[in-house]
Every structure is written in structure tokens, then in C-alpha cells.
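Lab notebook, entry 468. We have the chain sequence and a SMILES string for fe (ii) ion, and the next step in the workflow is to get a structural model of the bound complex before anyone spends time on docking refinements. Request logged below.

Task: model protein plus fe (ii) ion, output C-alpha cells.
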Amino acid sequence: MDLSAFPYLQGNYAPVEEERDFDERQLRIEGEIPAKLTGAFMRDGANVAFQPNHYVYPLDGDGMIHAVYFRDGHVEYKNRWVQTSHLKTERKFGRTIYGSVGKLLEVPQEVIDAGGEPNPIRNTANTNVIYHGGKLLALWEGGFPHLLNHDLSTVGLFDYDGALKPGDALTAHPKVCPDTGDLISCTQRWDSPNYWVQVFDARGRHKQTMEVEFPRKGIIHDLQITGNYVVIFYAPTYHSVEKAMKGEDPFVWEPELGTKIIAVPRDGSGNNIVFETESFFSWHFCNGFEAGGKIIIDYVWINSIPFAQAQGTGTEKQPRRMYRMSLDPKTRQVTNEQFSDIFCEFSRVDERRMGKVYRLGYATCSNRDWGDAHGYNCTGSFDFNSGETALWEYGEAANAGEPVHVPNPDSEREEDGWLMCFVHNPGEGPFLSILSAGDVAAGPVAKIHIPGRVPNGFHANWMQGLTL
Ligand SMILES: [Fe+2]
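Result returned:
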């Protein structure tokens, strides 16, 4: 592959070519692994198998999961592609067939005649991996999830026993309610501007659908729950399939329209509350909760959708900051304030506090100049009680992934858990970093060094109790 034309396939963004298995003898452990953890840290990401025709970071590229399994203080590592029908078709033909969401290509008739995947929109399965209701799922917001076995082998597309209809696209950012175990998710469709909140119970059975009508199909990536609401951001950004099929820039940013915030009551009443504010974009929420009659939302703010102006040219250097938003359902008033001036993304919390009052948010952060093919070289914590931010820098040129909070099984306290993320530090190589959730600035309590590169990726989770 010659990837020189693609800024977001350089350095540690470049794909790996092999699926690998490393046992404890091959992994080098520095420090002390928390002894009582039973489960797996898994992270999804884009890992092109064939040279792409076009590449829009962070939407394209075949999904690959990297996993570190923990049991009785012992660890194992695996990485596997998600075997999507698009990837299987390209493997059969030995070449790239499909385009990107920024530039769709007609599927050749010979591919369709040979039984290859006919949909020009690639289900990459590359964005997130979750474990809910006993099912391990690789997610991508443009289509169905893929069901995986614990060893990362692919079972196939999963439609929640028929709850998802052909054309439904399930978000990659569902939230689990810590009180009920429900998975609060949503579907969108390529052929409708509307949005459907979907609730699946703790066993993964479909429970509830709530429709939200929109005039135009927006790019809505994440959702946040609070005790009574599902909150979404409707920014003035849109994607046009027609433009993508013509090879034109399909992403639109119309800031004069402002950003709307929609609070959908979880009781299904349909009495949605719409808030209006000046335009901004966000990929990710940190957390949200209700207090004093207000809805509080913490999230990573961006001034506009990063790739709307110039795809693949590094426009991701726009500032990103942790913000706290306060919404008053009675007056519809919105206050939106920067919480920290640290450049950050991939914000997370202790999932036991999801939708509830909490103290600590976490994100991957950068404390260095922002190049065109950037990386985040720190893990950060945001203390919403004290207002303080703490950072651990892995190295000037390091790349650190999304930090996942792993609870301490012996404690209810956020700060007693750990943070895990993959890090690539030139000269040191790739490792899984384990930090104290209460003392990020002290640096890793353990590093699990992996004898093979782990590219930069997207979302990760701790799969409690999942073992091989
Ligand atoms: Fe995301």
C-alpha cells in the first residue's frame, strides 16, 4: 500500500497488516497489574486492509478490535478485523472496491454478479465496541452492529432479533443506565432526517422507541442520558449522499442556523424540549445530570465540524475544549461555559455515574503544538468539584487513546478505579497504560508492553467479566 496521500494514515495512524495473539510471556509488564480485575479492555478503530480510494478521518477504514484480557492478574492480547461483508468482498477480489463516506463509488456489476456486497456505503464496524446483555458488539453509526465472539471472531450483523429494520443505522454511542441496566441508543436512517431513541433492556431485548422529527438529516454522533432525559445536539451540519456519489464534498456547515439541543423525556411522553444557541459542534459528551431544576451537560466543544471545509487536510487542528452547559427547561435558557483550556477529546466517566451527579471526567489531551496529522500525548482528568485539571504526559510525540474508567471491584468511589488506554510512544513502543483514576498526574501504575504496533483508534470499553 502507498498511503502517502492520506494525512490520517501516517505515523501511528497507519494500519497494521496482521492479526496477532500474545500471551503473558510475550507481553512485558512494567509495574503492578490490579489483581482483582476480571474482564477485557477492548478498543475499536479504523485499519484499512487495502489502499483506499479516498479517506475521511475519522469515518472510514475497516474496523479492527484490539483487546487485552485480564484474569487473576494475568493478561493476554489479541487483535482482529471485524469481518464485515464489505471487507470479505474486497478480500475475495484482492483489491479496494468501495469508496468512502466522503466519496462514494458505484459498486462494479461484476462484484454484484459474484455475490459481493452491493451497498456502496461501507459498514466499517470501526467506531466502538460494547458488551451489553451478554453480547459483544462492534458499532458503526451508519448501519447494523456486528456481533462478535469473546475471542473477537465475527458472528455477523445483529438486528436485535428483528427490532432493527433494513436501513436502520444504530449509533456507536449508546449509554447504559446504571439504575436499570437499559441500553439507551438511537437509530437514524440514510433515507430519513428523523431520529429514533431506542431502548434495549439489560438482557438486550428491545423495549421502547421514541421518534424525534428533524427537518434535515443532521450529523448526530453521540447522545447523553440524565435521570429524566436523553439529550442530543443538532448542529447545523449535514451530509448529502447525492453529493458524495458525484464526488463532491458532501459535508455542509451552516453556522447561521445555530445549534439546537433536544431533551427527549425518557418516559416516552414525547414532550421534547428544544433549546437554541449559537452554532458549535461536538463529537462527544462526557456526562450529564440534573440538579436544581437544570440539566447539566459536560462535553467536548468544537467550533465547527472538523472536516466540513477541507477533507483529509488536517483541519482537525481546530480547538477542542471541555465545556459545561446548563439548560433550564422552564425558561429554555442555555449557558455554555468553557471548563478548561486543555485541548481534549474522547471524554469519559466512571460508567456507574452515567447520567448522575459526579466528580471526575477523563479525556485524552494534548499539551503540544498541533500538527496536521495530530495525536493526543496525555491523559487528563477534570475535577468538576474543584475545577482542577490534571495531566499525565506520555512523551512529546506520544499518541494516547481514549481513557476508559475501570471500577475497583472493592470500591464505589470513582477515584479508586483505574484508567486504561492504549499509548504509542516513539522509542518506547505500544503499551496499555493503567493509571490511578484518582491520581492521573502520578503516571501509570502499570504498563503492558505489546510486541506489535497498536494504531491510533477510536472508542474503547471495559468489558466486565468477559473472559476467553
Ligand atoms: Fe465517537
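Notes for the group: The chain has three helices and 34 strands. Worth checking against the assay data. The first strand starts at residue 21 and ends at 22.
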